[in-house]
Each structure stands twice: as structure tokens, then as C-alpha cells.
Automatic annotation (TrEMBL):
Subcellular location(s) per record: Cytoplasm
Record-listed Mg(2+) binding positions: E254
Originating organism: Filimonas lacunae
NCBIfam families per the UniProt record, alphabetical: pheS
Matching PROSITE patterns: AA_TRNA_LIGASE_II (PS50862)
Major site of localization recorded for this protein: cytoplasm
Lineage: Bacteria, Pseudomonadati, Bacteroidota, Chitinophagia, Chitinophagales
This protein's name: Phenylalanine--tRNA ligase alpha subunit
Cofactor (UniProt): Mg(2+)
UniProt-recorded Gene Ontology molecular function terms: ATP binding; magnesium ion binding; phenylalanine-tRNA ligase activity; tRNA binding
Signal peptide from the UniProt entry: none
Keyword match Nucleus: no
Length: 343
């Protein structure tokens, strides 16, 4: 017994002196002292040789020894974790991962996708075309006389290398390209970026995004135009939103109209957004000018059509209350972060 107690004292000193700052050292320590074939387990086996009146005392001594070993093991593990953290090694792979920032769609993309999906349900196909256009597709084919204001140097970006080339001022040029190749029935929408030479401010920019629509077939009437656009408004803004048409002028449509919706902010009662009229303008439209159909070899005595065009920024402003056009292209995450979750 005396000899055993001496051995235990020695072990305590040995354990206290144990050092190490990596997980290997901690594990070696555990195996040596606390393992199933370790020293402490071995000493416990001596219990059977201890005289009965000293068993209690020996048990106490062994408990102390075991507790000391466990404390020392914990402290070695702690030292290993600290050293690992500062050296960047021994990473704890069981920790939960850092969240991945998936981002979100741009508000203009959200609105474009919504518009496209609504018109797709009505049987409209999406058509796309080049942003650099020639004079014919952007102006002449669309019944725009040479002295028309839309051709004015102030509105149009001309390409220096070739005076016949422009940055398209509307996506009607895409529709012109479709009419060139395809015969009626034609039922398309053309979303895309267009360019105007304007001084940049909260209400004007040198580019914006447009969706134009075109439907040409036999017996297409203004009633079809109205019902199509009414369906679009109800899907986009809600069933209780009203529409109204005002006579207007576009060189490629006759008759032409502008369409308003009842104000989505005040519901038509009058507020600052609708300038206290209860109505906000959202698009221009009309029946395709017969001269345009003839330009593309489409028999205007047999076919009729309607067309419309709208600015996506305007739709987005009404849906999300964006009050400054510049926000769309500044890439400020404080703005963009507000649209995460859109599709
Ligand atoms: C607006 C008005 C409009 C059209 C676009 C069009 C295209 C062809 C034939 C006839 Cl190919 N019309 N487009 C018609 C009326 C209005 O846009 O305010 N856009 C932002």
C-alpha cells in the first residue's frame, strides 16, 4: 500500500509536468492515463489486493488521481484549440458553415419576367434584336418621316463610324425585323434596353427598358387591344385596378392612344404620385398603321393589328415606389438588397 501511494504521488507530478499545445499531445495524454488500457485503469485493478480497512482510503486517492488527470486532459485540449485557432490549423469541421449570400434579381428583371409570363399566357412569343440598329429598322420602316422629332440629334445616339447606324430608340425595330421574316399571324412581345440622348436626372436617363407588343392577324380590333391590356393590368397590379384610354399620336399607329391605370397608391382618390388626378399613365398603344403593314408586304386590306409600348422603369416605379431612375443603374446594394426573393 505504501509503495502504491508513493507511485501515485509520482504519477501526479508527472501529469502536472505534462506539456503540449497540439491535439496529438492531448490525445497521447488521454491514452496514457485515462485510456481503457491506461495507467489509472491499471491501478484500479490493484484494489483487490488492498486490505479491506484501507479500501476506502485507496478509493479516495484513486478518485483524486482520476480527477486530476481529467482536468489536465481538458487543459491540454484547450491549449491545442487556442494554438490551432491562432495558427489557422486544426479547424473544427463540425462548426456550422458561414451562410452563402445568394443575392437577388434586379428589380427591372423581376418586372420583365412578370410581364413576359403574363403575355406568354396569352400566346405572345418573346422576340429579341440588336441594340445597334440601322436607320431603316429603327425609323424609316416604322413610318417615321425624315424630319420626325424622334430622329432629332438630341434624342438619338448616332454611331460615328457609320451615319446609318444608331443605338435603337425603341424595340419597335425588333418588331420590324420579325415582320420582315414572318407572315401573320404574328403575336410577339419585345423586351429590351433602348437609348435616348437625354441629360441624366431622377426622371430621365440615357437608356431605359421597354416592352413592346405586336399582334397582327385577320379581324384584330381595338376591342382586342383593350381586353389584352386590361388583362395585363389586372394580372400585374390587381383585379380592382381600372384602365382608361386617351387619344394620342404615334407615327406607327392609327388610331393611337395612351393608357392610364387608376392610381395604385391612392386607389384613385388623388395623391402626389398621380398629381391628384387619380390616374397614372403606363403605356402607349394603337392600331398598326396600314402603311407599316404595306412596308413589310403584309396585305393591309386583309390584315389588321394592334401594338403597344411601355417603359419597364415606370411599371417598376408603380409596383415598388422607386422614385429615382438613376437607382436602377447605380448598383448600390442598399437599393438592390431590397428586392431579394424576386424571380
Ligand atoms: C410608348 C409607346 C408604342 C408602338 C409603341 C409599334 C410597333 C410596331 C408597329 C406599331 Cl412594329 N407600333 N409600337 C405603338 C404604339 C406605342 O410605344 O410610350 N412606349 C414607351
Amino acid at each position: 500500500m505504501e509503495q502504491l501511494l508513493q507511485q501515485i504521488e509520482q504519477l501526479k507530478q508527472e501529469m502536472n509536468a505534462a506539456t503540449g499545445s497540439d491535439s496529438d499531445a492531448a490525445e497521447q495524454f488521454r491514452i496514457k492515463y485515462l485510456g481503457t488500457k491506461g495507467i489509472i485503469k491499471g491501478l484500479m485493478g490493484e484494489m483487490k489486493n488492498i486490505p479491506n480497512d484501507q479500501k476506502k482510503n485507496f478509493g479516495q486517492v484513486m478518485n483524486d488521481l482520476k480527477q486530476l488527470a481529467e482536468e489536465k486532459w481538458e487543459s491540454l485540449k484547450g491549449a491545442a484549440a487556442d494554438a490551432g485557432a491562432s495558427a489557422g490549423v486544426d479547424f473544427d469541421w463540425t462548426l456550422p458553415g458561414a451562410p452563402v449570400n445568394v443575392g437577388g434579381r434586379h428589380p427591372i428583371s423581376i418586372v420583365r419576367n412578370q410581364i413576359v409570363s403574363i403575355f406568354k399566357r396569352l400566346g405572345f412569343a418573346v422576340a429579341e434584336g440588336p441594340e445597334i440598329e440601322d436607320d431603316w429598322h429603327n425609323f424609316t420602316a416604322l413610318n417615321m418621316p425624315e424630319n420626325h422629332t424622334a430622329r432629332d440629334m438630341q434624342d438619338t445616339f448616332y454611331i460615328l463610324q457609320n451615319p446609318d447606324w444608331v443605338l435603337r430608340t425603341h424595340t419597335s425595330s425588333v418588331q420590324a425585323r420579325v415582320m420582315e421574316k414572318q407572315k401573320p399571324p404574328i403575336r410577339i412581345i419585345c423586351p429590351g434596353r433602348v437609348y435616348r440622348n437625354e441629360t441624366i436626372s431622377a426622371r430621365a436617363h440615357c437608356f431605359f427598358h421597354q416592352v413592346e407588343g405586336l399582334y397582327i392577324d385577320e379581324h384584330v380590333s381595338f376591342a382586342d387591344l383593350k381586353q389584352t391590356l386590361y388583362f395585363f393590368v389586372q394580372e400585374m397590379f390587381g383585379k380592382d385596378v381600372k384602365i382608361r384610354f386617351r387619344p394620342s399620336y404615334f407615327p406607327f399607329t392609327e388610331p393611337s392612344a395612351e393608357m392610364d391605370i387608376s392610381c395604385t397608391v391612392c386607389g384613385g382618390k388623388g395623391c402626389s404620385l398621380c398629381k391628384h388626378t387619380g390616374w397614372v399613365e403606363i403605356l402607349g398603344c394603337g392600331m398598326v398603321h396600314p402603311k407599316m403593314l404595306d412596308n413589310f408586304g403584309i396585305d393591309s386590306s386583309k390584315y389588321t393589328g394592334f401594338a403597344f409600348g411601355m417603359g419597364m422603369e415606370r411599371i417598376c416605379q408603380l409596383k415598388y415606389r422607386v422614385n429615382d431612375l438613376r437607382l436602377y443603374s447605380q448598383n448600390d446594394v442598399r437599393f438592390l438588397d431590397q428586392f431579394t426573393g424576386g424571380v
